[in-house]
Structure formats: structure tokens, C-alpha cells
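Cross-posting from the chemistry board since nobody answered there.

I work mostly on the small-molecule side, so proteins are not my area. We synthesized zinc ion and want a rough idea of how it might sit in this target. Sequence and SMILES are below. Is it possible to get a predicted 3D structure of the two together?
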Amino acid sequence: MSPPGKACFYCERDRYRDIDHIRPIRFFPETCFSWQNFVYACTRCNQDAKRDQVWIINESGELLKYDRSTPLGTALPRGLHALIDIRHEDPLEFLALELETGLFVAIGQDAVTRLRGCFTRDLFGLNSDDLSKIRRQMRETFILYLTRYSDATRAGDPDAAERALDEIKELPHPTVLDEIRRQAPSDSRTAPLLDGLPAWPNPLR
Ligand SMILES: [Zn+2]
């Protein structure tokens, strides 16, 4: 399940050091050993940003927070978790990456989906200056490697194409590539580079 570069599944930065329980075991002890509740995360995202907190959007649309000050055994209200569950939901249905700026913007069709996208983005500081700069740089890096793959494919050199493909799969910040793929139909610079590029499985599914 390890992501490229052994990075955090939330911010795609750093080497992961923690296993995060998406649903904190303080409130969801039954998920303690549930594989579907685990992701690799860096200490910043797991221990500083998320901790064992839960945020519920209740049926009135209010955002309610539960944390260590909440008495154990408290029943949580009906509603949606504000945090995107990256084992079961696709973050790119909530957020789009602006490739020019490296910033995530909410794209949900309705207010609650947009709220969940913004909440998750802001909880982990995904639009920080350093992360957006890294994503802008990674865009150029992906295009460089995609060009190598495309050139090798066109030259009829399958071994070189395979090597380029293996390198692309190991590059950090794979969301940048996901977004390059999504935007390629309207981007004349990248569309030709993706010809014949296979899809590969999402490690979380
Ligand atoms: Zn992180």
C-alpha cells in the first residue's frame, strides 16, 4: 500500500512515520484493526493536524467538532464526516489542483461537498506556500518524464519506455500526475504525451 517515495497519503510530503486511523479509535474503537481504516501519514498530518478529532456536518449543515475533551462514550450525531475518507472517496471529486498555481480549489457540486473539500484541504494545510511550490515543480518534472516516455514509445524503444514508466510511478506527489491526466483533454501541451500511457491502480483501493 506504500505510496511513491513512501510519502504521507494526506500531504504527499515527507516520509510517513505513522499509521493514521482515518476514523479515530477514541470514537470508533471497532475500527482499530480494520485495514480499510489505515493510511500511512506523516507526523505533521497525523499528530499535529488531525489527532483523534472528529468533525461532523450535522443535518442542519453545522460543523461540529469532537476531541479529547469529549467524554468517552458520547454518541456522535447523524451526519457526514467533514474529513474526506481517502480509503473510500476520491479526493479529486472534492478538489481540483490548479496546475499553474499548485493550489487546490473546491469543485463539489453542492455546498456540503465543497465544505468537505475546503475543510480537508485546510486541516492539512495543503495550500501552504511550500507545498504549492513543490507541486508546480513536480508538474514540470512529470512533463519531463512523460516526454521521455512519449519519445521512447514513438521511437519504437519499449525498454526505454518501460524504464521511463517505472520512474514516473516512483515520482512523489502523484496527485499532480492525476490532475495532468484529468486536464489533458484541454491542454495541448500534455495531451500528446499521455498517448498510450497506462493507468495504474490506486494503492488505497
Ligand atoms: Zn502529511
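Reply from a structural biologist on the board:
Welcome over. Reading the output above for you: The chain has a mean pLDDT of 93. The chain has two domains: 4-127, 130-194. Happy to explain the C-alpha cell format if needed.
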